Amino acid sequence: MALSEFEIIDRYFRPRLPDRPEVVIGVGDDAAILRVPGCRDLAITVDTLVAGTHFSDDAEPEAIGYKALAVSLSDLAAMGAEPLCATLALTLPQADETWLERFSGGFFHLASRHALDLVGGNISRGPLTVSVTAHGILPEGGALRRIGAQPGDAIFVTGSLGDAALALEARGGSHIEIAPYTHYLRTRLHRPVPRVAQGVALRGLASSAIDVSDGLAADLGHILAANAVGAVIELDRLPRSSALQALPELPRQWELALGGGEDYELCFTVPEIHVDKLGPDLSGVSITRIGQIQKRGGLRFIHPRGTAFVPRFHGFRHF
Amino acid sequence: MALSEFEIIDRYFRPRLPDRPEVVIGVGDDAAILRVPGCRDLAITVDTLVAGTHFSDDAEPEAIGYKALAVSLSDLAAMGAEPLCATLALTLPQADETWLERFSGGFFHLASRHALDLVGGNISRGPLTVSVTAHGILPEGGALRRIGAQPGDAIFVTGSLGDAALALEARGGSHIEIAPYTHYLRTRLHRPVPRVAQGVALRGLASSAIDVSDGLAADLGHILAANAVGAVIELDRLPRSSALQALPELPRQWELALGGGEDYELCFTVPEIHVDKLGPDLSGVSITRIGQIQKRGGLRFIHPRGTAFVPRFHGFRHF
C-alpha cells in the first residue's frame, strides 16, 4: 500500500532534525513555533524548483533535495543572515520510497551543514515541484540589502562566474569540449555552495549585496536600479574557472560569466574606505574586485583594450 | 511579449501590500526581514494546493488564491496565532494576465481581512501549484497545541461539519439533491473561513486544538495519538448544517460530518473547569460540545439509541 503523507514525514523528514533552541515546536503540530531572541531580525525567503523547468527528468534526487535548499540559503546569504529553519512544500507524482530516501538525504546533507531545522512540511500529489521557505537570523538592522550602493563603491563577486551556464550549455549538446571538467561543472550546477559565511562576514562592510542567480549582469542590474546608479565592469577582472577558460573564445567566456544564471555567488559593493579591510578571500572563498559603481546610469563593460564591449545575452527569464 | 517574473510581481503582488510594523523589509530584496517584538512567538506553517488534486481545472482563480491562503491561516488559527505575513510560491503554466489578476484578487481579499503582509514570493513556470507559508504571532508560550488533552476534557468543534464533503459529493454527480444549498455548499468548499478569532479566543482555555482539514475523525485522531488517550463522540451532537440535514439518510450525514475533509473548522478540547467560561459561540461562530476525552484509547461513536456506531469511511489520504 502506498505511504500516507504522515508516514512519509515520519520516515524521511522527522527523524533527521537538529534541534535549534530558537525552535520551540518543530514538525508535528499545525504550525511550528519559533522564538527569536531579542535584538535579532528574521530573514525569510522562498524558492521553488520545478521538474522540467529547473532540472531535467533524469536529475539525481539527492541533487534536487540539495539544490532546493541551496537556492534559498543563497538568498539568506545575500542578506547576511545565518540559516535557522525552513519549511518544505513537496509535490510528488507518487510516493517512491527510494526517491524520497535520496531526496531527503540531499536536503538534510546541506541542512545539517548549517544546523538548519526543518520545522514544517507539506506533501501533495501532483507534478514534481519543490518549494522551500528558509528562515535566517541576523543582528537587528544588520541585513545586507540591495539598497545602499553609492557611486565610487567597488563591486566584488565571490568565487567564479559562468560555470553553471557552461555546464548547461555542454549538456545541451553544443559540442563544447569540457571532458576534464565534467565533474567540476556538474557539481557547480547541481550542488552550488551557498555563500553563507561570506554573507555574514560582509555585514557592516558591504554597502549592498545580491546573490547571482539570474546572471551577474541581471542581478547587478537590480542593485543599480534600486539605487538609481550605474556601473562599469572590467571584463579581464571577471573571475573565470579553469573550465571556463578552456573555452576557445574569450568573448564567449565573458558572456557566460556575465549572462549565465545559477552561479549562486554573491555580488556586493564596498565603499572605498572599507576595501582595505577585505583580504583575497572571505572564509576560504576567493573574492574579486570587478568594477565600480558610477553615478551615470546603465551597466558598461570595458574590454581589456579599453574599448566598450556589448555582450550577446540577456538575463534569464522565467516566462 | 510574455510578462517576466519581476513584471508579474510588480503588477499583481507588490502594490497591494499592507505594511505591518513587524515587517522591516517586504517584497523586493533577496529576503524579507521580520522583527518579532519581545515576548512574542512566531508560528510557521506551509500548505500547497495542486491543480487536479486539490481543485479542478475549471476552478475560479479567485477561489484558488483565496483558499491557498485560507488553509494556511486555518493552521495558524489552530495554534491560536494571529496572521502576520506569508510567502507565496506560485508555479504557473503561463503568465495569463486575467488569471493573475483574479488569483491575486482572491489572495489579497483574504489577506487584507487579516492585515496580512505578503513578504516574499517566487513565480516559476510549470504545472499549476500554489504553496503558501504563513507566519502568525502569539504571546510567548501561548500556542494551542495538539498535546495537552486530558481524560475528562470536553471536545468541541466550531461551526458545522461535512459541508465541504457534501459539496464534493454533489459535484461528483452522485445524484444528491442540493439545489437550495448550492451556493452555500460551494462557498463552504471554495471559501472556507479560517477560524482565526476563535483560535485566539481559545488561548488559555483549550487544552488542545487542531483544524479539521482531513475530517473530524482523522484530525481528532491526531490529538488522541499525541496524548495517548481515547474519545467518545455523541453522533446526535455533531453540528450539521441545513444542507447536510437535507440528506435523506441520517447515518450518511454522520459519515460526512466525521469523515469529510476540508471543513477547516477547529476541533478543541476544554478542561471541565473551563467549560462554563465558554458561551454558545466564539466571536460569532457557534461552538458545539460533541464528546469527551477518555483514558481508554480509540475513538468511539455513540448512536442516539445509545449503541455503538461504526461509520464507513477513512480519513483523506494524500497518496
What would you note in describing this structure?
2 copies of one chain form a homodimer. Chain A is an alpha+beta fold and 319 residues long. Chain A folds into 2 domains: 5-139, PurM-like, N-terminal domain (60s Ribosomal Protein L30, Chain: A), CATH 3.30.1330; 154-302, PurM-like C-terminal domain (Phosphoribosyl-aminoimidazole Synthetase, Chain A, domain 2, Alpha-Beta Complex). Helix content of chain A is 31%, strand content 27%. Chain A has helices at 5-13, 61-78, 97-113, 163-171, 182-190, 196-202, 216-227, 242-245, 250-259, 272-275; strands at residues 23-25, 32-34, 40-50, 82-92, 117-125, 129-139, 154-158, 208-212, 230-234, 265-270, 281-282, 285-294, 298-302. In chain A, strands 7, 8, 9, 10, 11, 12 and 13 form a 7-stranded mixed β-sheet that branches. In chain A, strands 3-6-4-5 form a 4-stranded mixed β-sheet. Chain A has a two-stranded antiparallel sheet with strand order 1-2. The longest helix of chain A is centred in the first third of the chain and has 18 residues, at 61-78. The first copy, chain A, is globular. Chain A starts with a helix and ends in a 17-residue tail after the last strand. In chain A, 52% of the residues are buried. At the A-B interface, strand 2, strand 3, helix 2, strand 4 and strand 5 of A face strand 2, strand 3, helix 2, strand 4 and strand 5 of B. Strand 3 of chain A pairs antiparallel with strand 2 of chain B, so a sheet runs across the interface.
